[in-house]
Amino acid sequence: MIEASADLLGRAVADLVSLLNPDLVVLGGGVGAGLGSRLLPRIRATVRDRAQPISAKRVRVVVSALGTDAGLFGAARAVFGDFSLGKGVEA
Description:
This protein is mainly alpha-helical. The protein has a single domain (about 1-85), classed as 2-Layer Sandwich (Nucleotidyltransferase, domain 5). Helices cover about 70% and strands about 10% of the residues. The chain is built from four helices and two strands, in the order αβααβα.
């Protein structure tokens, strides 16, 4: 069951890689923190096998170092990032 989920996630990532041709795909949130590192080789293999060859060779698929807190870091950056530029956030 978990391996099948990794294959499905790999297929979805492969479709995005083929369409957008990114240099990097970061798996974050519950996927990255939970089973991402354990299933990463299977996800990468699926991307390599199913994405367009040029895109598949170029892309790196990694697990986020921020784990499940990635959304919190992004929200904090959105709010406090503007303060550091002297803009502030209007209420």
